[in-house]
Give the backbone structure.
Amino acid sequence: MLHDSITLKNRHLKFIKTVSESEIVYGLKSKNGFATSSSTQYEDDNGNPIGMMCFWAEKVRAKSCAKDEWKKYKVTEILLSDFIENWCIGMANDELLIGTQFDQNLFGFEAEPLELIIELTTELKSLGKNLNFRKFNGIEDLEKQVKEITE
């Protein structure tokens, strides 16, 4: 069954809203690392699918995906500030994508890490929240630096 892009986008928007409110992101982790997939939308210069790491806004949704090739994975909590500052920036540097809100059939939204940071900072500011970062002086500084890179 094909998931239409509107459904995936709506789940992604819910991811942004939920993790901004809870300040927690969930991943699936095994002894070999975090759950990964390959993009169905983006390819590298050689025509190969770009790698992607998958994250969820709800523990139960992440747990529902711990089956088949991910059956040995356990749900892991990541603080939103750490996710933004270390994971998103690291994945951008590694040219990886972020998959959000994958379902049991492994369909989810594919996001560029720096674009995801902008979406998250926009939502956090609308909620009147600020996060503590090690390398940035708050959300405004982070957002400014990311926009400088992406524009």
Notes: The two ends are 37 Å apart (CA to CA). The mean pLDDT is 92. Strands lie at 24-30, 33-34, 36-43, 49-56, 74-79, 97-100, 109-111.
